[in-house]
Write a structure and sequence with these properties.
The active site is at 411. It is an enzyme of class 3 (hydrolase). ATP binds at residues 187-194. By secondary structure, the protein is an alpha/beta fold. The chain has 4 domains: 3-98, Signal recognition particle alu RNA binding heterodimer, srp9/1 (2-Layer Sandwich); 129-315, 3-Layer(aba) Sandwich (Rossmann fold), CATH 3.40.50; 320-390, Helicase, Ruva Protein, domain 3; 401-592, Up-down Bundle (Methane Monooxygenase Hydroxylase, Chain G, domain 1). It has helices at 3-28, 35-43, 74-82, 97-124, 154-167, 169-174, 193-204, 213-217, 223-237, 249-252, 262-280, 320-331, 342-347, 354-370, 378-394, 401-420, 455-476, 484-499, 531-558, 560-573, 578-604, and strands at 47-53, 56-61, 66-70, 87-91, 139-140, 182-186, 208-212, 241-246, 287-293, 311-314, 427-431, 441-444, 575-577. The chain is built from 21 helices and 13 strands. The longest helix is centred in the N-terminal third of the chain and has 28 residues, at 97-124. Bound molecules: adenosine-5'-diphosphate and zinc ion (ZN). The site of adenosine-5'-diphosphate (ADP) has 18 residues, from helix 7, helix 12 and helix 14.
Length: 605
């Protein structure tokens, strides 16, 4: 039954309930009498009894006819009532229990209706006893394998271990290893999270239960939690198996604490049930819960604790090579003409997700069919591409060529500063594939774990952070908002160097209370320090950053050709790893040598 049907039914029931209540009210309320008539009758001694409740008056006249009326001012009426030999009864005006029960009637009607309806549904589905449970969350078998998922790189390796533990649960626990319970797949829509969960089930040959996070909360109060329990009972009976919860943010968003509105309450109950179930089952029952989200930032921290979703795997949008591989996966299922070049096609669809690519192949097949062709050629792909890009542009997810260039130079700027300076973490990977709000990313990984940081390391870190903004400025002569996070990071480092780590000669090794967010607030406060000191600190922060900025700028200007080369490499490949960056670097060095030799030669002549 769809939600729309439930909604319509609810509206109908509410309407019936309210109408019924009104009819009932009219039946039980005596016919009304105008107040002036009532006063006249009272004067004429035609009233035998009255019952007062607030301003409303009910009574019986001398000929035993009931009536009701309303007095605007009962106080002034009292003397004339008392002057006659009337029977007067009264009750307090606040709604008594009777009134309360009456007001519940529509609710009871609705609930009753719903129960009856549900029973009918249950009958239709064969079992009422298990309503809302197993038959709504059918067990599935998956014939998807890792072959069907392409272009997700490292993520795949992390997940093969899960497959192993499902295939061979005994071996894992015998070695004392803890079988992972929860895996959180994070990534933009259409990157293949659902597909991947199915592939894990398919590879391991275990049953698969799939459910969307919003399926839990759209239900009525209390149903979400009991569905979670039923799901787990069912899964445990069929272990080893996989439970897949899509859009877990729908139930797993941060808990509000306090202000519990109805729906939130329901969500929290569901989340709590999920946490209890995850903690509850013992390790001999291999049930792996895979959840997917594209908003990992809003998840409740409780979900990410050890023993819950402590494995987190990020799936990014595919780069050129990834897109080519995904094209190949979906291209297998259709008949392609000889002129189709997936390498070229992959380069022309930056920003496409796996789902967009699946859609592209499908659309191209439709185009070919429309033109009565026997196979899909490059023209069909081009036509299909235009159609999809238009759709994506409407959703604002297409990155303009200009933005790509700016991002490429920005990231190259970070990477080059990091590469050319000593005392920095080596560059691991550079990418211009957007992730969340970031347009690109330069990832550095330390060779060894660092527990303390040297002055030089910190200064070079600030220079590296500044590198992005400087590259943009050097090449495009314009500032963009893309550097806001870098600026925040650099300011924080400079602030802590001065206030916490005593690394500034002017301020000296004195601790000043300036929290990392201090510079965003009402200005700096210091531990017992004066306003004078606070001002001094601010100017030293600025001085440190200015110094770093100037040095990084110098570095990028002298290595300007390296910057262009690396940015070009990024524009073509979208991701550049450490090895590839080295190749670009050596190309650059060789060219420089060659140029130098040319200059020397011309001087010799
Ligand atoms: P998500 O769950 O991340 O939103 P899905 O798994 O539902 O994405 O992807 C939808 C479809 O897009 C898949 O069924 C598949 O056809 C295609 N797809 C997505 N990612 C990939 C990929 N990495 N390799 C092959 N096909 C993919
Ligand atoms: Zn940056």
């Amino acid at each position: 039954m769809s939600n729309i049907q439930i909604g319509l039914l609810m509206i109908l029931l509410t309407f019936l309930g309210i109408t019924g209540y009104n009819v009932w009210l009219r039946e039980t309320t005596p016919p009304p009498m105008s107040y002036s008539d009532f006063l006249e009758n009272l004067e004429g001694q035609k009233i035998s009894s009255v019952h007062l409740k607030g301003g409303s008056i009910r009574g019986v006249d001398t000929s035993d006819r009931p009536f009701s009326t309303f007095s605007p001012d009962v106080g002034s009426l009292m003397p004339s009532l008392l002057a006659q030999s009337l029977e007067i009864t009264s009750e307090s005006n606040d709604p008594g229990i009777g009134q309360f029960l009456k007001s519940l009637i529509p609710v009871i009607l609705i609930l009753g209706g719903w129960l009856i309806f549900n029973r009918m549904q249950g009958k239709k589905n064969g079992s009422f006893a298990k309503s809302g449970g197993a038959h709504l969350i059918p067990q599935q078998t998956s014939n998807v394998t890792f072959e069907d998922v392409a272009g997700i790189g490292e993520a795949l390796e992390e997940l093969t271990e899960i497959v192993d533990s499902l295939k061979n649960p005994g071996r894992f626990s015998k070695l004392g290893g803890r079988i992972p319970k929860g895996v959180l797949l994070q990534g933009s829509p259409g990157t293949g999270k659902t597909l991947l969960a199915r592939a894990i089930a398919g590879e391991a040959g275990v049953p698969f239960y799939s459910l969307g996070g919003s399926d839990f909360v759209e239900m009525f109060v209390g149903v979400g939690a009991s569905r979670v329990r039923e799901l787990f009972t069912e899964a445990k009976k069929n272990s080893p198996c996989i439970i897949f919860i899509d859009e877990i943010d729908a139930i797993g968003g941060k808990r509000s604490g306090g202000n519990a509105s109805g729906s939130n309450d329901e969500r929290e109950q569901t989340l709590n049930a999920l946490l209890v179930e995850m903690d509850g089952f013992s390790s001999d029952k291999t049930v792996i819960i895979i959840a997917a989200t594209n908003r990992p930032d809003i998840l409740d921290a409780a979900l990410l604790r050890p023993g819950r979703f402590d494995r987190q795997v990020t799936i990014s949008l595919p780069d050129v090579k990834g897109r080519q591989k995904i094209l190949a996966v979906h291209g297998r299922k259709v008949r392609l003409s000889r002129n189709v070049n997936f390498g070229e096609l992959a380069r022309s669809i930056p920003g496409f997700s796996g789902a967009d690519i699946a859609n592209l192949v499908n659309e191209a097949a439709l185009m070919a069919a429309r033109h009565d062709k026997t196979s899909i050629d490059m023209e069909d792909f081009d036509e299909a591409k235009d159609k999809i890009v238009m759709g994506l542009a409407r959703k604002n997810v297409v990155i303009s060529e200009n933005d790509r260039r700016v991002t490429a130079y920005h990231e190259a700027g970070h990477a080059i500063v990091a590469k050319m300076l000593p005392d920095t973490d080596p560059v691991h990977k550079i990418t211009i594939i957007p992730r969340g709000r970031a347009m690109g990313l330069t990832q550095q990984l330390p060779l060894v774990d660092r527990y303390t940081y040297s002055y030089e390391y910190l200064m070079n870190r600030i220079k590296t952070l500044m590198g992005g903004r400087i590259a943009e400025e050097l090449i495009f002569g314009r500032l963009t908002t893309g550097a806001s996070n870098d600026i925040l990071g650099a300011t924080e480092i400079a602030t802590r160097m001065i206030c916490e780590w005593g690394m500034n000669p002017e301020i000296g090794p004195v601790a000043h209370q300036q929290t990392s967010s201090g510079f965003l607030g009402e200005g700096s406060t210091s531990l017992g320090g004066s306003e004078q000191t606070a001002r001094e600190i601010d100017s030293q922060i600025k001085k440190t950053i200015d110094e770093c900025y100037a040095e990084a700028r110098e570095l990028l200007m002298t290595n300007n050709k390296f910057l262009h080369k690396l940015a070009e490499a990024l524009l073509v490949n979208e991701t550049v790893d450490a090895e590839e960056m080295d190749i670009v670097f050596h190309c650059y060095l060789n060219e420089k040598e060659y140029e130098k030799s040319l200059i020397n030669k011309s001087q010799e002549v």
